[in-house]
Amino acid sequence: MSPTTADLVLRAEIEELVTRYATAIDHRDWDLFRSVFADDARIDYGPLMGTWDDADVFTDFMRQVHAPAGRSIHRMTNITVKPGDVLAAVTYGDSIILEAANEANYDHGAASYDDTFVRTETGLKISSRTTRVVLFEKLTTNIAIGL
User: Fold this and answer.
1) 126: phi then psi, degrees, rounded to nearest 5
2) pLDDT value, residue 52
3) How many alpha carbons fall within 13 Å on the CB side of residue 147?
4) Alpha-carbon distance 109 to 27, whole Å?
5) How many other CB atoms are there within 10 angstroms of residue 17's CB atom?
6) Cα 13 to Cα 116: distance, rounded to the nearest angstrom
7) What is the rounded distance in angstroms from the CA atom of residue 19 to the CA atom of residue 134?
8) Cβ 137 vs Cβ 50: under 8 Å
9) Sheet of 37-44, strand order
10) 51: β partners
């Protein structure tokens, strides 16, 4: 069965939303970041980072975590919209975060994000996110320094 126009529009909205999440982190645009989540979003990043029930508090956490960092790249891929009564999707995420003081050192992470969404007056928002970290490593061999 071919997707309807409404299905394609919804998929585009979801892709834009999860991409906005990554772009906001990399640009340190915390207002844009905050716009991704519903006010009372349930955000679970597991034992590595924590759990939140308030998008403002989560945004503040992410701002503090990234403040000492250097440049970063967050990529969101393999976005799969789940069929069913609840609007949901799974996305793969991959990140590289350089240390500000020494760009030879960096963190590399990979995870999957299980998201549910809610439509608000200002558009689609993430209402819950469960993160499953697959990889988090600290590396010291960035040969692209200065390029």
Assistant:
1) -80, 125
2) 98
3) 5
4) 18
5) 22
6) 13
7) 20
8) no
9) 51-52, 37-44, 123-139, 106-120, 88-99, 69-82
10) 44
CA distance 76 to 68: 23
Distances, alpha carbon 41 to alpha carbons 107, 110, 118, 145, in Å: 27, 22, 10, 38
Side chain identity at 32, as an amino acid letter? L
**Domains along the sequence of the chain with CATH:** 5-139 (3.10.450.50)
Answer whether 90's CB lies under 8 Å from 113's CB. Answer: yes
Apex CA 77: angle with CA 19 and CA 135, to 5°? 110
pLDDT of residue 1: 73
Q: What are 35-91's pLDDT values in tens digits?
A: 999 999 999 999 989 999 999 999 999 999 999 999 999 999 999 999 888 999 999
* Residue type for position 31: D
Q: How far apart are CA 64 and CA 4, in angstroms?
A: 42
State how far the alpha carbon of 109 is from the alpha carbons of 14, 28, 114, 131, in Å.
22, 18, 16, 12
